[in-house]
């Protein structure tokens, strides 16, 4: 699992980065004296005579199952038979390592040796864990066998006392013999496994000693950057014959190839699993590509279009790149040749991802990067005589300087503002390359070859890691953009502003993360990463006492990171599953409305609960000490937290019983609006005049609530209208039914209908009843009312208005006057 840019595996770097925050809990609080580890074993009892035959059959079935489990773990015997060969291989590697260390190798070969032995350690440690698991499983089987043995011994004694038939006694005796035979077989298997584990552990300790010796030599003064390791170049000698150098080179290349073949043979099962993973990856890439093809992508940001093109136009290159990268992470203890092949593959494939974004004059950079990476890589597999090696370093430095100048001389005069960020970075980097080349040449001339090695390593590898990480960034941005685009585009209504903001925000986060890992690889390349990690590990694992609790800075960081990770994971799950209620990844399952929200809520609560427990565990706290706190919380709930708990429980009931769902239109306490979100304590209701009201969940459960859209969103609208007594009621009913049916928003079933209500004081009163979707009810009612008015006017039907008679009995200067007015 090596990312061989500096002969430290990608998995090692990733793991080490996380270890800085998660693995500093070795110095924790003292375990509680009240903690008791015990194994509860069922007490054996004699089986009654009436149940003996039936239990004999059950016990035989258990014994057959145990035998199958023993047969399924013959791999331990295979390892035991192959171990002598591997032990011999380790011994030969030890002899070769001693010869290499005695031949005054360069820093790169020292680092390669360390990586090689680390791969051997990972391989043997994995086998040791498998053997240990085998022993642990056999121990559990022995406990079962012993329980059976004691049970049937008691049963046999009881059967003899009760004078059971001879046939029953014989069957019990035969069963006890079978149990003893399996017990003996398990003990033999365990003994074999324990011997093998001891042998493996001995070799692991030997490997640890060799690695410590290599690391000590690397950190010695001999390999200090400013140590005068060789004579000046004009004093070098070429006394060693060329044939001897060629022989050493061929031997080194042959050993590398043999290591590769041996690695493939020993990891066949891992390759099968790897091919399964990348097959699944191909389905994901196809799914993401279909998202861009199925839904139109609209965005003004050019970076979003670049990320779209990576998945849409280069899906195969993206797939191969990710497959090779997963191979670097997946495999453990890989030989140097294997990881070098993967790196070259990453460089070649990344050209298809990055080159479309690079100006034409700059496209040849891939050939230059690949060429110099191979040139520098040859120093790993070939052995040079000291004099030849000095000439080789000089030749490499001159070539690098010339190539950078020829590649960038046209771009120095270019003032194009649209140059790709990668191109700009490499152009700005070129002065540093010239300085490094000058330092490499001068240090090589003077004999400071350690400094020469590190400067040339930076020159040849900085472009490699930059291109690979830039390709990874583009692919990750393409994946994130595709996921967000498909998620929003599959909805009935798309919030483009939220979609764009989320795409740009996630793109920024990815850039920061990739930049951090690029920086870690750069530190590793200049051989600063490991001492810096050791230094930080010492600081973060330093214990501090707070009363009876011992904590470390690392445990505090672990606590914070676990909580943040839990929060981010719950946010992601909420977005993927129930964002928009039913519009998430569970949409294809066609679940009832509200079920995705319930599933999301349960998963998020579990994540938060376990995340909190793990976070406390990372601090080294004994969770049993929280019993008193739990009791105090119970009292608090009984007195001061009743409302909070009732709202919380009401929220759970709302989610699972689903009387109110997100997006429903409800009416409660004279409040009419749409449910925007159902939270833990309260729910948000957005009224139709734009206000957002926070309603406690308990109010939704305890008060009379009207849900206009629970089972469906169909609503009946009633339009009341009157006509004069001169109008024909049949004609009025016909006009009402025709007008209601002609409107596009009214449902055909049930159809609109007009009804005659009553003989009013001034009019014949009618009502038009129509069924429409709730969201369209106000608009539809207004439009149908206007249409009825126009139809009445066209038909000459008068809509009456109230009339009153006013009688004035007397006025000043007049007698009795009656005046009728309308």
UniProtKB/TrEMBL annotation:
Question: Where does the signal sequence lie?
Answer: 1-29
An MF annotation (GO) of this entry? mechanosensitive monoatomic ion channel activity
- Please report a single Pfam family linked to this protein: MS_channel_3rd
Q: Where are the transmembrane segments?
A: 271-289, 310-331, 337-354, 366-384, 390-408, 429-448, 454-476, 509-529, 549-573, 594-616, 628-656
Against SUPFAM superfamilies, the record matches this protein to: Mechanosensitive channel protein MscS (YggB), C-terminal domain, Mechanosensitive channel protein MscS (YggB), transmembrane region, Sm-like ribonucleoproteins
* UniProt-listed InterPro entries: LSM_dom_sf, MS_channel_1st, MS_channel_C, MscS-like_channel, MscS_beta-dom_sf, MscS_channel_2nd, MscS_channel_C_sf, MscS_channel_TM-2
Membrane topology annotation: Multi-pass membrane protein
Q: Which UniProt keywords apply?
A: Cell membrane, Membrane, Signal, Transmembrane, Transmembrane helix
Q: Where in the cell is it found?
A: Cell membrane
Q: Domain named Mechanosensitive ion channel transmembrane helices 2/3: which ranges? A: 602-642
- Cite the Mechanosensitive ion channel MscS domain residue spans from the record: 643-709
Q: Which GO terms describe its cellular component?
A: plasma membrane
Give the similarity note.
Belongs to the MscS (TC 1.A.23) family.
- Which top-rank group of organisms is this from? Bacteria
Q: What is this protein called?
A: Mechanosensitive ion channel
Domain Mechanosensitive ion channel MscS C-terminal span(s) in chain numbering: 720-799
